[in-house]
Amino acid sequence: MERLRGIVDIPSGTGDEVVWSIAKNYQRIRLRAKDPSLIRAAKRIAIRAIIDRTLEELGPTRMPMVRKLIDYSPGVDGEIDLSGTLDNISSPSSIDYRQIVVEKKDLKRIACVLIIDASLSMTGEKLAMATSSIAVLAQRLKGIEYAVILFENRANVIKKMDRDVDLEKLIGDLLDLNAMGYTNIEEGLKAGISELDKAKTPNRIGIIITDGNYTMGHDPRQFAALFPRLHVMMTTGLDAREDICNGMAQQGKGKMYEISNYEQMPGVLYSMIKTFHFRLSVGGGGAKG
After folding, report:
1. N or C: which end of the chain has fewer CB within 10 A?
2. Where are the domains of the chain?
């Protein structure tokens, strides 16, 4: 730890603040440290810190279940629905198992593509935190297929919809990523649509994290309309384009959310997915969340 403190400013102690400081300063450690073993140690600490911070920011997580009433048959799991069963019984002397109604609870599957602006304002631990959020949610909640796309002047699919990936390796790769200066939102959205098309479920949602300030490509608002549902997480700042972000959300039949701190991403992302899932559960396939 003392060797790291000789490279970057790390608070005293050994608690969460220390490991989180290493995660936030990993890019500088990677560039300044001469000892490869020290860089590897800092990277391991940073990966674990990002996963732990994601879990902390998410808090308790659960998805609403879809309630179905079905006729009982041997081997069916569920609880007996008394009201439905009593309605089926015409005479106490003629009861058999075929009159039993069972309540079964299922989780609707959803597919989410997370599209992240990887230009100068989003580097290292910010990209890792955003990606960790959707990956941890998918592991915790089940029933979520997901893809992750980074974009700057072009789009890069770092986690495909139809492929599994090791979370720690994925976060480690993002920590080592160097940011680029150009922002081509159009390319990110096109890649997002392509990944959503691979999903096994028809319940599909796109989420883009950006400040909306595109410097390459066409106006992204026209491409947002291609999504069945697109929410926008706008990172605030001097260069933020609220008109573009709000326009993408409107064209994508979604909502725009503002975040001033990237540590807000896990909670906001969970809120988006949970709302989408809840409206699917209560309203069938035409969710408006």
Report:
1. N
2. 2-58, 66-106, 110-283
Contact status, residue 157 vs residue 191, Cβ threshold 8 Å: yes
- Cα–chain-centroid distance for residue 162? 16
Average pLDDT over residues 15-32: 86
Single-letter amino acid, residue 224:
A
CATH number of 110-283: 3.40.50.410
**Which candidate, 243, 134, 136, places its Cα nearest to that of 192?**
134
List all residues 6 or more positions away from 227 whose beta carbon is below 8 Å from its beta carbon.
189, 192, 193, 196, 204, 205, 206, 252, 253, 254
User: In the Cβ-directed half-sphere of 182, how many Cα atoms lie within 13 Å?
Assistant: 10
Q: What residue type is 161 in one-letter code?
A: M
- The answer, as to whether pTM is greater than 0.85, is no
What pLDDT, in 10s, does the model give residues 90-143?
666 666 666 676 666 667 789 999 999 987 566 678 888 888 999 988 888 778
Question: Using an 8 Å Cβ cutoff, are 272 and 115 in contact?
Answer: no
Measure CA 105 to chain center.
Answer: 24
- Note the pLDDT tens digit of each residue in 41-93: 999 999 999 999 999 888 887 766 666 655 656 556 666 656 665 676 666 66
